[in-house]
């Protein structure tokens, strides 16, 4: 048997730093990837629609969630301080991190102070965003992912391609291969039955859970009035990490705040139904500081900015901070479905990534707001009603434009703003396209028209246009 | 100033600057439901939702023995009612058991704080008859007793029944994952078997 | 009867006179006086959605100048109607969009008719275009009008709610992804076996029609590889 893996990490093939259209082209050329994505997103779309449809007040919940999040954004300084005060009173240590580097350094210091050189991790987008694992590796610490999909990605030495299910681009057969070749203690004769794969992950991680000294988590919600954190999960790996170790470090984006504990009655209806298509996820943990005799003694919270205040400053764009990371927008997006997450070149892919990434890292992802046909499917399913198409257009209007395109647009405006010129242009187009009149369409245009005719014919202007007809019947 | 206070002040200042002139957010409409329709059989709904997510449902105190199945060593919170200790198992009260001890248990038997019918969710807040979080996590089989007055229809009715600052665990079925092709399969790290005993008579 | 203004859209002005002609025929059949302000050009959507806010505002203002005096402006495009309604308020602070109606909105909400007296003895599948459906919220209005057409046979389009991949300049900037979306739309359209694929926007129809035309060519087949694109207004105007 060959020692070389027969699967290839998708992220190694799709260039993360390439502009989206280029990276997308590579992804589009990977048939297994596309098949896996279409299958998984198709499955989850139907489940989401079914459980959202069970609630006759779904739209009222969305309205409430959007309003609560808008309120949070408007009162962010006050709520952050309230959270800090209440969490501290309950025995937590609250830290503040301006950027990824600062958050990573605080976390690494806390791990060392706890006398550990490795940690177990609950799946967390914030730690992905700040590349905590990579930082730990660089300073001689090791972070073990415990979420099944994160484990798959980590073993495969790949990168996450989805917010909720980072290994969505692998099917069961590929996952079996990854376990078989990389896990080290995979059971002999492992099959590709999902239950068998889950069992293998259980065995692989069990001892680590029961002996870990330090865990690192994120949080889905941070409740200001109580100082509580909330983690929403399925497998029980979250409960293990949040309960068993002596030290718990939670890295929480400042936008995760909620004013009140009872606000969970809104979000805990919307989140599970929007993300995994379940009425409720198997496990939700809520904890407030540390409690003697139950769970970690040393509880740390790192409140993370890392570009969020930059997003907050944009009146239109700040709604992106309402995101609860459910992934519903990815699952319905026709672009994401065909390219997967790696093509976006950012930890937040899909429609939400296309509006979040360029705002979190200004100037670095100017191609992403264009990675959308503006079909609006994302806005339709978003449980917190982020008007993603609106923000996409807004960001396009902020960003730089290519000089040739700008000249063409300006010229079009000059013509269209003058009715006489517009009519002359229409006449010109009809004359210019005379040679194709009999054929009825054009099949090969020079660049940039070639980008259209690569896959579709272009009709030619008619012999008699509407204006002729209108004039004729007026006589 | 320390690094911590510098970072704190700087982030708060950035927030205030970002919100300069933003004013207050429009009010929060809360037109959603907080109750199910009157006349909904919430016990029937709870059972339906529990079974849908692969929990086993039993009725009456006497069923606890059967719910525990063949478990021989069963950890229980120290304050578990004596009359719930039914069947041939050895009931081991949690008096600060070690992780290794817990790992040697076949099952855990507890009560709960509330149960939500519409989503089939059992809520624990480490209150009476529930014990600390680790005992309901490490053993592979969780038997939970739900009294009739603990059953509510809607999540909004359950939240006020919880101690908001106590450690909470909301449980909806046994451990599961949707990480393989986004299909739900039961059984990863948490208890893979969940039995619910309803005291609904 | 009130006078209504017709906004034909730049796409129809340049390429597809049949749809606006059909709108005139339908409205006149219902007794409306139709006005065609000849100074009209473009709603500015391509500019706005491509990131050219100032240019879009220039065209939006021109639109307002041309159509400002009308109570009802009817257009055979869900996309252009949505542009006026959703974007004009913050682009130029104008609520003229409240008076712009996509054809089915005008027929059902204003004129109060579903049966416009059409006959179209053909099989038709309907693609609900994204802006019409999601931005404008047309719901099943175009379908209600089509169901009332005599002798029409409507066939469901699989995965109808999926975007065809047009998206304005998206089709050029992300040509490969757009083409992949189009391929699926064309396959689903062909699977219906319908003679016609109808929609409420000629821009999407240009895209889908262009895709089907290319498939036809690539396959070199004598028989059609998919339905003919048609604006649903043409079906409603038909009395064949």
From TrEMBL, chain A:
- Looking at the Swiss-Prot or TrEMBL record, what is one Pfam family this protein matches? LUD_dom
Q: Which InterPro entries match?
A: 4Fe4S_Fe-S-bd (IPR017896), 4Fe4S_Fe_S_CS (IPR017900), FTHF_cligase-like_sf (IPR024185), Helical_ferredxn (IPR009051), LUD_dom (IPR003741), LutB/LldF (IPR004452), LutB_C (IPR024569), NagB/RpiA_transferase-like (IPR037171)
This protein's record includes keyword 4Fe-4S: yes
The record's keywords, sorted A to Z, are: 4Fe-4S, Electron transport, Iron, Iron-sulfur, Metal-binding, Repeat, Transport
Q: Which Gene3D superfamilies match?
A: Alpha-helical ferredoxin, NagB/RpiA/CoA transferase-like
* Domain Lactate utilization protein B C-terminal positions: 397-474
Q: List membrane-spanning regions.
A: none
Q: Which GO terms describe its molecular function?
A: 4 iron, 4 sulfur cluster binding; metal ion binding
Q: Which SUPFAM superfamilies match?
A: 4Fe-4S ferredoxins, NagB/RpiA/CoA transferase-like
Q: Superkingdom of the source?
A: Bacteria
Which GO annotations describe the biological process of this protein?
lactate metabolic process
| Listed name of the protein | Iron-sulfur cluster-binding protein
Organism of origin: Glycomyces algeriensis
User: What are the top taxonomic ranks of the organism?
Assistant: Bacteria, Bacillati, Actinomycetota, Actinomycetes, Glycomycetales
UniProtKB/TrEMBL annotation, chain B:
Q: Which domain of life is it from?
A: Bacteria
* InterPro entries from the UniProt entry: FTHF_cligase-like_sf, LUD_dom, NagB/RpiA_transferase-like
Q: Which Pfam families match?
A: LUD_dom (PF02589)
Q: What are the residue boundaries of the LUD domain, all occurrences included? A: 104-199
Q: What is this protein called?
A: Lactate utilization protein C
TrEMBL record, chain C:
One of its Pfam families is CCG
What is a single molecular function from GO for this protein?
A: oxidoreductase activity
Q: Which domain of life is it from?
A: Bacteria
Do you know which InterPro entries this protein is assigned to? Cys_rich_dom
GO cellular component, as recorded: cytosol
Every copy of the Cysteine-rich domain together lies at: 4-83, 124-208
| Cleavable signal peptide | none
In its UniProt entry, what is this protein called? Answer: Fe-S oxidoreductase
Taxonomy of origin reads: Bacteria, Bacillati, Actinomycetota, Actinomycetes, Glycomycetales
């Amino acid at each position: 048997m060959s020692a070389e893996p027969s699967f290839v990490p998708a992220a190694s093939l799709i260039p993360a730093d390439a502009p989206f259209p280029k990276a997308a082209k590579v992804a589009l050329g990977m048939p297994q990837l596309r098949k896996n994505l279409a299958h998984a997103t198709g499955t989850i779309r139907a489940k989401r629609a079914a459980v959202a449809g069970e609630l006759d007040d779904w739209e009222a919940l969305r309205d409430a969630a959007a309003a609560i999040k808008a309120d949070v954004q408007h009162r962010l300084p006050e709520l952050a301080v309230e959270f800090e005060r209440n969490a501290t009173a309950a025995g937590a240590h609250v830290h503040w991190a301006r950027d990824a580097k600062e958050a990573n350094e605080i976390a690494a210091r806390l791990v060392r102070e706890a006398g550990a050189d490795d940690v177990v991790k609950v799946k967390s987008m914030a730690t992905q965003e700040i590349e905590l694992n990579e930082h730990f590796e660089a300073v001689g610490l090791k972070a073990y992912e415990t979420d099944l999909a994160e484990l798959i990605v980590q073993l495969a030495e790949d990168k996450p391609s989805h917010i909720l299910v980072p290994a969505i681009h692998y099917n069961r057969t590929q996952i079996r291969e990854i376990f078989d070749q990389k896990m080290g203690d995979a059971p002999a004769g492992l099959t590709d039955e999902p239950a068998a794969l889950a069992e293998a992950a259980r065995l692989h991680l069990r001892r680590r859970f029961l002996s870990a000294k330090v865990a690192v988590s994120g949080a889905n919600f941070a409740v200001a009035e109580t100082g509580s954190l909330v983690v929403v999960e399925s497998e029980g790996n979250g409960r293990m990490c949040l309960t068993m170790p002596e030290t718990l470090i939670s890295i929480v984006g400042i936008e995760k705040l909620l004013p009140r504990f009872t606000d969970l009655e809104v979000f805990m209806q919307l989140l599970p139904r929007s993300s995994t298509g379940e009425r409720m996820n198997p496990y939700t943990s809520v904890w407030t500081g540390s409690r003697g005799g139950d769970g970690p003694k040393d509880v740390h919270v790192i409140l993370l900015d890392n570009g969020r205040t930059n997003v907050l400053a944009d009146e239109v764009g700040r709604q992106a901070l309402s995101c609860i990371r459910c992934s519903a927008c990815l699952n319905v997006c026709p672009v994401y479905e065909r390219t997967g997450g790696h093509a976006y070149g950012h930890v937040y892919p899909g429609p939400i990534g296309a509006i979040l990434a360029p705002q979190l890292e200004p100037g670095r992802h100017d191609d992403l707001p264009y990675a959308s046909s503006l079909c609006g499917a994302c806005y339709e399913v978003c449980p917190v009603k982020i008007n993603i198409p609106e923000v996409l257009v807004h960001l396009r209007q902020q960003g730089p434009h290519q000089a040739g395109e700008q000249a063409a647009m300006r010229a079009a405006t000059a013509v269209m703003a003058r009715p006489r010129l517009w009519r002359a242009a229409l006449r010109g187009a009809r004359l210019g396209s005379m040679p194709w009149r009999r054929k009825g369409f054009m099949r090969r245009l020079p660049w940039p028209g070639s980008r259209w005719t690569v896959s579709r014919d272009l009709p030619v202007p008619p012999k008699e246009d509407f204006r002729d007809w209108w004039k004729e019947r007026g006589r | 100033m320390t690094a911590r206070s510098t970072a704190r002040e700087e982030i708060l200042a950035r927030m205030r600057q970002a919100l300069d002139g933003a004013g207050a957010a429009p009010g929060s409409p809360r037109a959603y439901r907080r109750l199910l329709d009157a006349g909904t059989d919430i016990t029937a709904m709870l059972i339906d939702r529990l079974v849908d997510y692969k929990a086993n449902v039993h009725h009456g105190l006497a069923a606890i023995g059967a719910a525990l199945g063949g478990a021989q060593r069963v950890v229980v919170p120290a304050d578990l009612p004596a009359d719930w200790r039914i069947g041939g198992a050895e009931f081991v009260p949690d008096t600060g058991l070690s992780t290794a001890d817990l790992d040697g248990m076949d099952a855990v038997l507890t009560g709960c704080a509330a149960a939500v019918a519409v989503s089939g969710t059992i809520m624990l807040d480490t209150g009476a008859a529930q014990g600390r979080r680790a005992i309901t996590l490490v053993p592979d089989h969780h038997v939970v007793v739900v009294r009739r007055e603990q059953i509510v229809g809607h999540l909004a009715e359950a939240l006020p029944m919880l101690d908001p600052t106590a450690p909470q665990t909301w449980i909806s079925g046994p451990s599961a994952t949707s990480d393989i092709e986004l299909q739900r399969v039961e059984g990863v790290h948490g208890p893979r078997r969940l039995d619910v005993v309803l005291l609904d008579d | 009867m009130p006078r209504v203004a017709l906004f034909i859209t730049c796409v129809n002005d340049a390429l597809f006179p049949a749809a606006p002609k059909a709108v005139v025929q339908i409205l006149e059949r219902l007794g409306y006086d139709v006005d065609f302000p000849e100074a009209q050009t473009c709603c500015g959507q391509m500019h706005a959605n491509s990131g050219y806010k100032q240019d879009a505002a220039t065209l939006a203002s021109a639109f307002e100048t041309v159509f400002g005096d009308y109570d009802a402006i009817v257009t055979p495009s869900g996309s252009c109607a949505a542009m006026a309604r959703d974007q004009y308020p913050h682009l130029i602070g104008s609520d003229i969009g409240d008076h712009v109606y996509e054809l089915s909105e005008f027929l059902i909400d204003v004129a109060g008719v579903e049966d416009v007296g059409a006959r179209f003895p053909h099989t038709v599948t309907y693609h609900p275009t994204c802006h019409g459906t999601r931005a404008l919220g047309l719901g099943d209005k175009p379908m209600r009008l089509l169901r009332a057409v005599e002798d029409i046979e409507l066939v469901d389009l699989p995965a109808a709610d999926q975007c065809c991949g047009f998206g304005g300049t998206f089709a050029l900037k992300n040509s490969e992804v757009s083409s992949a979306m189009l391929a699926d739309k064309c396959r689903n359209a062909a699977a219906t076996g319908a003679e016609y694929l109808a929609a409420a926007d000629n821009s999407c129809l240009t895209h889908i029609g262009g895709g089907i035309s290319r498939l036809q060519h690539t396959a070199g087949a004598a028989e059609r590889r998919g339905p003919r694109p048609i604006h649903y207004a043409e079906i409603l105007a038909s009395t064949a």
